[in-house]
Amino acid sequence: MNVDFYAAFLIGLMGAGHCLGMCGGVAAAVTLGMPGDQQSRRWPYLFCYNAGRLFSYMIAGAIIGGAFAGMANYSGYTSALVVLRLVAAFMMILLALYIGQWWQGVSRIERLGQGLWRQLAPKAQSLLPLKSPFAALPFGALWGWLPCGLVYSTLSWAAVSGGAFSGAGVMFAFGLGTLPAMIAVGGMAQQLQKWLKNHYVKRASALLLLAYGVHTGYIAIKQIM
User: Where are the transmembrane segments (predicted)?
Assistant: First the structure.
């Protein structure tokens, strides 16, 4: 498996604090909004919600990855992907600074998707309360388009993945990384939430991402030169 997939997974896993802040309330609503006699059957709801969310991530990754690969092939300027990889490396460095809580500028990227989200949010709200686990699928798919700096940063890696399939794979890996945080808040796993928010865990993960971003940027610069 390409190292980019592992990096995308790590971004999702270690962006837990951001995930809990952005989507934690939504994940909790998936279980709190269900009928009282079904509280013990929260897991099918959480599974379907997260499956829908990951599906949207994969669709976005496929669109971005396919579009950029197609443009590079059509123009005959395949080295454009190398330049984009340098941009993606820069985004990962910024993301590492964000996860390590050294710089919070990545959150400004979330403004890019506000227009689309204003159209989708009412549709998502109209699905509550969820009547069945299957109703959580479209609910999760809509919430997958919530403006998120982590998602947009990872999409920069999908853009340089080389195609629609690999772009979807990068975003799938990212989505898998977010699952522990989302399941923790929905399933009331307090110990897991505490670990995901641990200051030292976040700093160590940020340093790993920072090192990978610097290494990737160095390789891209060498290829350009």
Answer: 6-33, 54-74, 80-99, 134-152, 164-188, 200-221
User: Coil, strand or helix: which one is 147?
Assistant: coil
Domain count across the chain: 1
Q: Give yes or no for residue 76 having a pLDDT over 70.
A: no
- Asked whether the beta carbons of 186 and 46 are under 8 A apart, the reply is yes
Could you read off the pLDDT of 108-144 as tens digits, one per residue? 777 777 788 888 889 988 888 788 888 889 999 998 8
Higher-scoring residue by pLDDT: 22, 98: 98
pLDDT in tens, 168-195: 999 999 999 988 877 766 555 555 556 6
**Residue range of the domain that includes 35:** 3-224
Residues 6+ apart with CB under 8 A from 3: 212
DSSP 107-119: GGGGGGGHHHHHH
Question: Could you give phi then psi for residue 162, rounded to 5 degrees?
Answer: 105, 0
Measure Cα distances from 16 to 20, 154, 196 in Å.
Answer: 6, 14, 6
DSSP code at position 225: -
Q: What is the pTM of this model?
A: 0.83
Of 114, 104, 173, the closest CA to residue 145 belongs to 114
What letter represents residue 175's amino acid?
G
Q: Answer whether the bond into residue 44 is a cis peptide, omega within 30°.
A: no
